[in-house]
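dumping this here before i forget
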Amino acid sequence: MFNKLKDLLNNSKHTIALTGAGVSTLSGIRDFRGKNGLYKDFDADKIFDINYFFQEPTYYYTQTKEFIYSLDKYQPNIIHQTLAKLEQKNIIHAVLTQNIDMLHTKAGSRKVIELHGSPQYHYCTDCQKRYSFAEIVPLVQSAKVPYCDQCGGLIKPDIVFFGDFLNAKTLTSANIEVAKADLMLVLGSSLIVQPAGYFPQTVARKGGKVIIVNEMPTPADKLAEMCFSDLQEFCEKLNAVL
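structure:
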């Protein structure tokens, strides 16, 4: 089966990867909907609700102190490293990720399209002044809500909240990659959240191949050329044949 996958990768003209929260669980970052997902302990819909953020920003910064503003302590795992290596070999041309943990970039991937943004940058919701992740972390870790030192406005992470629109340039870049792709690897995504959930269908509809690796079934499994459930084993075997 992995020899077939090797052939698909070698014969593909434009392979892309779509990654979800399951990719980062091997790094110790909990996913949202898995067996030990954050939804079991937190009301993620409330934490990432844009209206509630403006109403009560303390709630967001308090609840995310440990799993967003401690991201520096996490390291890329075999999945991030494999994708970075495949990009270096010119086998994978882009990584589209639903994750906000910045681990693909940390692993060395160069073309990473962060569909839901990331906390790498924050900005003032009034004057738009930008702040780095490193500037905001000490404030959040000391239980302070960050406000702009220029105008006093509330500072928000450059993350897409529920009720936000995806960044138009980011979405355009993602759609361009999906349109060019003749092979898509879907890794660790439930494919429930849109628009990422539609990307495999778009690739398959135009004759491309889709490979899905996810612990739980996804709505796109029936479209896939191959399905696997163990991400670590998948990457270990993929590394062995490439």
